[in-house]
Design a protein that fits this description.
The protein has 283 residues and is an alpha/beta fold. Helix content is 43%, strand content 13%.
Length: 283
Amino acid sequence: MKTILITGATSGIGLEAAVALARQGHRLVLVGRTPNKTDLAIATVKQRSSSAAVEGLSCDFGSQRQIRALAAAYRAKYPRLEVLVNNAGLVTPSRQVTEDGLETTFAVNHLGYFLLTTLLLDLIVQSAPARIVNVASIGHYQGTMSFDDLGFEKGGWSVMKAYQRSKLGNVLFTRLLAKKLQGQGVTVNALHPGGVDTPIWDKAPWYAKPFLAVMRWAFLITPQEGGQTLVHLASSPQIEGQTGLYFSDNKVTEPSKLAQDEALAERLWQVSEALVTPSAPRP
Ligand SMILES: NC(=O)c1ccc[n+]([C@@H]2O[C@H](COP(=O)([O-])OP(=O)(O)OC[C@H]3O[C@@H](n4cnc5c(N)ncnc54)[C@H](OP(=O)(O)O)[C@@H]3O)[C@@H](O)[C@H]2O)c1
């Protein structure tokens, strides 16, 4: 039985993956945005998996203070972390800024993964063999990384540009972290879950809705199907030891050229570190 922490576990891909992993007999710690949603997710996963080993913690990933509190609460309660699944993600209908002064999509989707993982990294290493699974997206292929305007403050924000940048961040972070953890018994992989019919797209701006309606009707898979690659990376013995990879539909897939740019990954790491260090000057 592994202890698995999964963020964004109150809905969609995260909730379905949690049910599947609980059915496999693992201990699940579900992270939801609010205590109410988290409690509901715990009850749902327990009921659908018939497992009693399902607990929860709450955190809004738009708040670095809450991410630090989440890591501290996890450490206070659990001595091991064999699998960390970074899955919580969003889009916003317009450009928004978090309480830390950062563009919300980048803050939640990329810095949320970065900060939680780095805060728990020593515990994960101590728990080896262990895995880190980052839910990225096919959207990363269109992603760009502009360090002089990461949050589109100077203009040019769009829901997809912000989302694609955050998801490129997920793949760059995955590959560099895997390299840093070589030889320590911890694998790190990223995935695209497929185009999945979940509430994430409900927050898209009105002008994207007709396109999304066609997508939903014609192409989108169910959250249960969308959770399969995540479950595979989190628990399958078949991928033991594989690391630094990007998976789509359970298969290793080449990520974008930018996602393979090692200098870009190093720079993003440094900038992310500065952005999550409360007293550091903003790059
Ligand atoms: N659906 C797709 O087609 C698709 C495709 C590629 C990648 N993905 C990725 O898959 C992951 C899961 O998305 P999904 O499609 O399953 O969407 P979803 O059903 O909306 O689930 C997203 C989860 O993340 C949580 N979340 C969002 N913002 C948060 C915040 N600020 N703090 C804490 N939790 C937050 C949500 O909590 P609430 O319930 O409180 O909102 C929810 O539990 C995301 O990383 C997404 O980028 C999805």
